[in-house]
Amino acid sequence: MSDQQNLTLLWDDTISIDEAMLSLLRNIGLSPLPVNIHTLDRIEADISGPAILHLSAESFASLEATIGFIRKLAFEAFSVLRIQPHQIELGMEAVRLGFEEVVVDGTESRKTWERVIEKAATSLLKQDSYVFVDETSQHLLALIERVGASEVNALMNGPTGSGKEVLARLAHDFSPRNQGPFVPVNCAALPESLAESLLFGHAKGAFTGATKNTIGFFEQAENGTLFLDEVGELPLQVQAKLLRAIQEREVTPVGSADTKSVNVRILAATNRDLRQAIRKGVFREDLYFRISTFRINVPGLRERRDDILPLCNYFLIKHGHQGTDTPIAPDALGSLLSYEWPGNVRELENVIQRAVVLSAGGQITSQHLFFDEPIFAEEQDSIDQFNVGQSGQVGVATSPQFGAGPSAHEPGTSREGLQSAMEANEFRVISETIRNARTRKEAAARLGISERTLRYKVSRMKDRGFDIPKKRSA
What we know:
alpha/beta, Rossmann fold, Helicase, Ruva Protein, domain 3, five-stranded parallel beta sheet, 18 helices, 13% strand
């Protein structure tokens, strides 16, 4: 992991560096190595592990050439571009094209490079965060590798939070298109009135506010991969045009009579049963067969329990336990392994992030673990969600509160008070979000929950005497 050793900093030797800067970089955990960027291929084999690559904007003819150079490297690199104070627009363009950090010559400080290290550690760690320890996951990895290399369109079906986008990125990395862009699109978040324009682009004057020709996601993904997440949420009208774009490999921008050829590989994902959606008439059968040349079922976290602890280690490093050898106590490990994880990897990250805050940097015990409440208490028996308490007894979690088993309400502990405080804080966040959103649907999207979950939480707020704010006036 990137936190176990100093990060190598490959420093473009066209950028001057003095002893004071060298000393500062070494003190904060970097190993600076001045290199000739244009002969970097001669030492690539000697670079072990990921690195930070610090380039000058003057070293290449264009930003596009610089990005092309980075993509051809044989090792993982966090890219930092140095610009001059008068090149702010160039810096903004660099970020748009894919540079992960920009520093302005003559203005950087210790905090600047500490921020670079923090971002680089998380970014480079993410490259190693594909956890395939469980046997089920290893079979899935082998399948992703074969499907990725084949370039067929593929549909990933699995529960929310199970890692479908991670797998799609991995399939792209395994494909012959890995030097091209990977463009993820959350179809559920596309405004219905703008979905067509965002996917296929629009011509100048196509509608009010269309002041110039704009390319859509298809053209942005040229020679790469377009990932359509939650594809089942697309309106039927857009589905018809998406079918033609995939079938004919061409798009027609809104307001234009001209078609444009596109060379894009389609990966899609859904947590819905699209066959049932077809029977209900809300998803096109012909589009289903176009995007599902190969179907990949993504298992939930409860079906690959050997991945839980490696994922915990990843989230501990990501959220603040760098350098800790044994951050999780045995009783906490037991609770993590016995829980059913209805929210999958996203829920696991939430639990670990809360535990990091509550443990204040110390060892995480079961007292620091607060599991998310059941989404629908009345459906708890059908969920069959089991929790293990300190006594080792297994039982159905019938209380819609945070906690892992009987220990959540043991006398003499402060967990009830802590729970009440956390719940009150949650209700305040929900109230503020509803107050500033135009609709309940928008509020749910901002909170990262479904509308049905929001209704459930609002109902609980009313039961506890909280005032429910009215939505913001349009």
